[in-house]
Amino acid sequence: MTKKILLLCHDLTTRLRLTHIWSAAGATMLPRTSDETPDCVVIDLGRRDALGEVARLRALHPGVDIVTCAATFDGPAVEAAKAAGATDFAARSHVDKRVARRLNLAN
Prior knowledge:
alpha/beta; Rossmann fold; 4 helices; 5 strands; globular
């Protein structure tokens, strides 16, 4: 079964790299406007609306993993994301591996 990932990332280079990695591992990347329920949502905390998106998506998809990421670890930002409904946090450079493990994607 193909896994569906919704990636909300403000950095185009990171977004293209992650899309390539996860697509190669057998996942489908959902467009932001998709009505489909994702298996995982990845939200970059660098987005100005990141916490609002976490809360909105948690309400819309209560059982879906929501993984937040950022370039560096920021304890208060991670705690705020978890309070908004995030399931997990990963450094941006390792989020591909974290999501692959959570979804059991092929390496």
